[in-house]
Amino acid sequence: MRLRGHGKVSAIIMVLPPSQRLWVGMLVLMVVVELPGALQKCIFDEVQAQARVVRAAPIHPDSPPNEPRLRAQAGTSGQQTNHPEQRASPLRGQTQRRSLRKMALPTTASPQPIRIRTWIPTESNDLSEAEKERLEAAVEEAVRMVSSLLSVNRVSGPLLLSRDINKYCKFIWRNSSSANYNRCGRANNNYRTETCLDVTIPDDHLAGCDIYEEADSPRRTELCPEGAGLPDTDFLLYLHTQATDKCRAEPNVLAYAVHCQTDTHGRPVAGVVVICRDSLTGATYSHQAIVQTIIHELFHALGFSKELFHTWRDCSSNSQVGDGCSPRGKVSHSDGSGQMRIYTPSLISALQKHLASTDPELGGPLENLDVAPGRVSSHWESRVLQGSIMAPVLGDSTTVRIDPVTLAALQDTGWYTVDLNQAQSLVWGDGEGATFGSLSTCRNKSSSFFCTGSGFGCHYLHLHKGGCQTDQHLEGCRVYKPFKNGSECWIEKNGRDEDWSGEIFSVHSRCFFSSLTRQQTELSSSVEGRCYRHRCTGLNRYQIQVSGSEWMDCPAGDNIQIKGYQGLVHCPDRRLCVYADITPPSDVLNTFPASISSDPYETLTSSQTWSWSPLRLPAELPAAPVLGVTAAVCLLAAALLSLRKCCSCKVQIHTAPEDHTDL
């Protein structure tokens, strides 16, 4: 047995009697394998609640044709709401735009892919060339994906952001009978500029503003000139890359975001994504993790935010998004168990379809960690929607999905038409019924997606081996999480010489629950996750191959024996050769699926529903006997202690396969 990077321990094992080497080797693997690291943190709700948001209100009906007005409302996101009575509040001010040509109003044409303009502020100009290249590549890919998913009524003319009248104005005319009602009567001498989070908005991106010194006089003084605006832009993304105080205070944060401006229909038109500088440096960089994180934060800024849930719009009676839609009002409510959910039509339909249930209580479940009863968060409940792009924690990039439930939620904002056909397969909980993910069902072995104890097994996508773990978001429920190092079945170099369990690591290998050992070992083994080759022969049909064996049919849901081995291999049901888009990363993928049929997935449709019983691990798989190798274990422990004293092992959070991407 060869343990790469642990030569001293290997040498100790080899001096033991042959009958003891197998079990001591297994113990070494259990000790040296690195379990998932600490969960990374998404601070979106915390940051957005402190952000100042400027909302553009409709043009005043009394405005003369040659003097259009755009009233701006502002306040902290945590305090400001956009109910009709507050939009009419005399405490809110207005700015003026002197040219209809430059007003950022939505067109009435059919929705088209959203045009997201990225802008890197001067504060981020100290990036190295390598960091700039990494950032540009990741942002370009993320923006391209989002633009292919979401369409809007495009802004007519250049996009101009509003100025906050509560910042530039010291006095507002509040007499509703005056001609200059809600206009600025006196300038704030301390006013300098507008910001979006920590980013200074260039004056060229901003509308102008005027001062009306008399209540009923049309005379005005220009305080700020009109900017040129940004052409061909529907959403302006300020991309700030720096080691901010929040990055330093929260070492598990990779990025965070806010929206800071909305249009007349409440749609966000500007926001900031802050990428913590360290995430772009050296060996810690993961391109796909950065791409997924930017998409996650963009979805927050574009509307998946608890601060915007109550502003979502109902466009069911209108063929167009935005225009003619009515406010949905409150969309989040508690179900019978106290779980806060979003109840909107597309979202309910998507979740019912995913869980194969017609239960009307199936709204989108929201994360409740650190959330007061009756309040909501801006992430899905992790127990129900593990692997979703909007889950509170993003795992290994191969396990994160831009899922149909999230896209349905964005559709229900009323601001976008969404290409739901581009949704990626959400395997977690597929077909498991309305109670899936509840605290009562996750602990009683009623679903194969959860586990009990702390043993080793397979991640539910079967791309990785993993350990049965819980975290704060799972609230005591346990799932198999990929190990940090060497858990990927598709990476050939993860294999070991003289493997007694028949493992094969290759691009076509997947994880199977197995108790196989070579017959000459004279010892049985426990059920663990092990990597074997597979190839598809049809929908939910496949063959497997272990070291030294022929290809063998592996009937889904059954256990098989392999010639030359003792023990059994369990063939997972509805996990392999079902989802064509569940694959290893594209950079290691040559051809997939490994198939001996023309297209094993061609009969799988998005509308297909299933009726099946939950997958359970078979009781007949043998358990490992108790080992009487006290002396060997003591020797092993001493060796490991010596290694720990001699070596410093740094955990590289952002490159480890199981490390959850910070949001």
Which range does the strand content fall in? 15-25%
Q: Provide the number of structural domains.
A: 4
Mean pLDDT: 79
Overall number of strands: 35
Overall structural class, as computed from helix and strand content, comes to: alpha+beta
Largest sheet: 6 strands, mixed
Question: What do you see in this structure?
Answer:
This protein folds into four domains: 1-32 and 628-663, no CATH class; 44-310, Elastase, domain 1; 316-438, Leishmanolysin, domain 2; 461-625, Roll (Leishmanolysin, domain 4), CATH 2.30.34. It is of the alpha+beta class and 663 residues long. Residues 1-33, 60-103, 590-620 and 622-663 have low confidence and may be disordered. It has a six-stranded mixed beta sheet with strand order 3-1-17-18-16-7. Strands 28-30-31-32 form a four-stranded antiparallel beta sheet, with no helix packed on it. The longest helix is centred in the N-terminal third of the chain and has 21 residues, at 129-149. It has eleven helices and 35 strands. Helix 1 packs antiparallel against helix 2, helix 1 packs antiparallel against helix 11 (630-646) and helix 9 runs antiparallel to helix 10 (404-411).
Report a brief summary of the structure.
The chain is an alpha+beta fold and 663 residues long. The chain folds into four domains: 1-32 and 628-663, no CATH class; 44-310, Elastase, domain 1 (Roll), CATH 3.10.170; 316-438, Alpha-Beta Complex (Leishmanolysin, domain 2); 461-625, Leishmanolysin, domain 4 (Roll), CATH 2.30.34.10.
